[in-house]
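Repro:
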Amino acid sequence: MAKHKVIFDTDPGVDDAMALYFALAHPDIEMLGITTTFGNVTVQQATENAIYLTRLVGLEIPVAQGAAIPLAKAPGVPPAFIHGADGLGNLPSRVKVPGEAEKISAAEYIVKMARQHPGEITLVAVGPEGNLGLALKLEPELPKLLKQVVLMAGTVVEPGNVSPVAEANVWNDPDAADLVFTAGWDLTMVGLDVTHRVVLPSTFFKALADQHKHVAMDTLYHAVCFYSDFYGGIRPELGHGCFGHDVLAFVWLVAPELFKVQSGRVRVAKEGIANGQTMMDRHGGLFYPQPGWERERPETRVCLEVDAQRCADLIGSTLAGDWLKPALTV
C-alpha cells in the first residue's frame, strides 16, 4: 500500500510536536514538507520549532513559513501560559541544529507541491487555516489538485476551548476557516468532539523518553509536562495529563476505522459572541431560508466519536518504534 504523501500545516505548539513525531514515526506516512502559521506561537517561532524538531530526529524536511496574522480578524497574542513562550514548554536549552526556511511562502509551497503531485497529497492542518485560505486565493483549483485535507479544528457538540462554542484554531482565523470549509475538497474535520476524548498522561511520554534516551523525546516530554501543568490547573480530573488534539488528525489518516463520522455542510461564525463557532447542518435534506446553507454547498466529514483507548495504544506503539536517528548538529 502506498504511503500517504503529506504536507503538515502547523503552529508548534506542544500537541503539534506530538503530531509531528507521530507522523514521522508512522511507516505509512511520507512527510513531504511542513508549512507554518501563527497560533500557539508567532509564525517565526513556529518556523524555528518546526526546523528544530525535525533536525532533532535527523531529518531535513522543507519548512515554509506562512501566515503571520489572520485574514481579517485583528491578531491576538499567542497563549504562552499554555505552550510556553517558545511553544515547547520553555526549553532550558536547545541543541544547535542547521536549517532555514524555504524562500517561498507556505501558500506558494502548498500550491507548488500540489501542482507537482496532482491528486497525491494530503494536507494535514492543525493550526489556524490562513495558509490554506491564501493558497486557495493563489490557486482556485487547489481542491482538485489535493487528494484530501484533514483539519484538527472546530467542534459540533463538545463545548469550545476559547469560548462556549469555539475551538481555538477556528477562532484564531474564522474567515480563513469558513473559506476552507466551503472550498469543495475532500475534507475531514477532527475537532474537540473527539480530541477531548483522548487524554495522554505525562507518564505516557516519560516512558517513551526513558525507552529511547534521545534528545527529541526528552524535548517532547519536557513540553508535555508544561502543557499538562496547564491542563491540571483548569481540568483537575485529567490528572497530570493533556489532550492529544493535533495527533488525532494523523490517527484519522492512518486508522479512520477508530472514528465515527457524519457528513454535512459546515460554516463558521465570523463575528459577534459566536465568533469562531463551527456550525454543522446535521439534518441534511431540510431547506433553510437562511442564505449560506444551500444544498449544493460542499459537505465536510466530521469526526463525532472515537475509540480513545485504541487511539492511545496506536500513538504509543508508533512512537515506541525504531524511527529516531541522531540529531543533525552543526
